[in-house]
Amino acid sequence: MTIWITEDQCDGCKRCQRVCPYEGIEVIDGVARVTDRCTSCGVCVDVCKKEAIGSDITPREVPDFSDRKGIWVFVEQTDGHLANVGLELLGKAQDLSARLNEDVSAVLIGKDVARLCDTLSDHGAKHIYLAEHDLLEHFRTIAYADVIEDLVKKFKPSILLIGATPLGRDLAPRVSRRVGSGLTADCTELTIDPDEKILWQTRPAFGGNVMATIANRYSRPQMATVRPGVMEKKTVTEGLANIIRFEPRLDEARIRTKVLQIVKEKKHGTDITEASVIVAGGRGIDGRKGFDMLQELAGLLGGELACTRLIVEQGIMPQSSQVGQTGKTVRPEIYIACGISGAIQHRAGMMGSRYIIAINNDPNAPIFQVANWGIVGDVNEIVPQMIKQLSNGGTL
Fold it and tell me: Does the global pTM surpass 0.85?
């Protein structure tokens, strides 16, 4: 594929130079020149009003996907307990379904997990692809990938959503490679393009400083992993789902890994994505001593302690407690932001909170723009007063 310039038609306007993302074209002495950095992407051809740039590039054709129907959600379960993110994705799938007029289906894999189908039905699954097998008792990447690959190739969904959990982040890329489709990881928003009716997948990039929206026009299913806590669970009353039992073809020798022992991590408190009250601290909190103070406040409120990215980088709090684009997305009833300025990266992770209380000594801090109630003052003076009030049987 080649790009060329018809010099007597070029007026040196530099439109081509400005739009080229690779510095593959530059204007020298009033005439555009193709450099050795050109990738033949063709973007310069489209912007040239004088038609001075020519190309033998042929547009890539979008395949016929008329046989691809349905929005699928892989619903993760461990020891017979459903992960919340799967139910959240079923809720989002209902919104997407309304735009596409396609059915919502759940994919449930494991051993003796059929009893979970009623819950999936209650949360919006119209069809449930159920794969049960002794070899699926515990998650093993190859076994689960084999099952989903066979299901996708046989039933041909248009969209496949997976939670961005440790399990989902392991499974999704393998399935994507197996079925020859692209994958957008760690999405925070999913919408349907009104014209093309394809899935727009939005995720943070460059450390959360940019939000990138990605579309997959050339392969199916359109695949995305979605962060827990971003979407809302929904319930329906449309009757029981249609259960499609699938007999997986599994071989222990092919799986190649064995689960010898399961060691469960000892957790302190509730996962912040499931907490109803969160007390979060940022730059304005005085180190570990300050977070001990916030922990006391959280305990009196029956809540959990969270933080910003800076606090994790300083080693004061674990990454599992971080709220924001590069951390977790939370939806508590009450979110108390202590000493947090409210950068967009942090706000993106807590905007779903029902009530936001902000404490900051800067009256112009961005956090006050999204807070329901704001207190301007020194957090190290205000929080102790809150603790004293609650300790004496009072309320906030």
Answer: no
